[in-house]
What we know:
The protein has helices spanning about 35-40, 45-50, 60-65, 75-80, 130-140, 150-160; strands at about 5-10, 70-75, 105-110, 115-120, 120-125, 145-150, 165-170, 195-200, 205-210. It is α/β, with parallel strands linked by helices and about 220 residues long. The longest helix has 12 residues, at about 130-140.
Amino acid sequence: MSLVRVHNLAVSLDGFATGVDQSLESPFGHAGMRLMQWFHDTATFRRNVGEDPGDPTPDDAFAARWDQGIGAEIMGAGKFGPPGWEDDASWQGWWGEEPPFHSPVVVLTHRPRPALTLGGTTFHFLDTLPRDALEAARTMADGLDVRVGGGPTTVREFLAADLIDLLHVAVVPVVLGRGTSPWTGLDGIEDRFVSESVTTPSGVTHVTFTRRPRE
């Protein structure tokens, strides 16, 4: 069966994966780009936005894995747009006419709307539970893996439902003080996984959790 993977989940030293007061102007809230600057400096990101990728960095060894073998993504409403986007029928996401996913994407929202195709990406808006969303995404993925792309609340829900096979967390050396944690209510979840960590010259520690064989 295909795997369910999380990649490039950036978390601050105090455990927050996004800030407060998310808006159209501030997709990560008061955190700004502090959590994701390491990713924006990688050849993977620069290539995806049409820039000269330059030389790969040690962080790129992790960043580049995000689309390898992926056939579909699942994301929460907060990743698709700022608070209130469901009330705007013209909202098409943050990414313009050519989103970087190039695959089917399931958007979890309590306000479903018709599917939206932009470039090589089709967004499907579903009001459903994690396990049912995964079943739909697996059908769309055509045998490839499914990525849970975030935000942190969605990742937490899939972890709580024991649906994640691989989890890559980038621990970034910043302190946010407040925000949304992906770990709330998940005490002891590390026991499900084998973990390994690598710290790069940027100061980011990449922690990879691989699911132990299910009994």
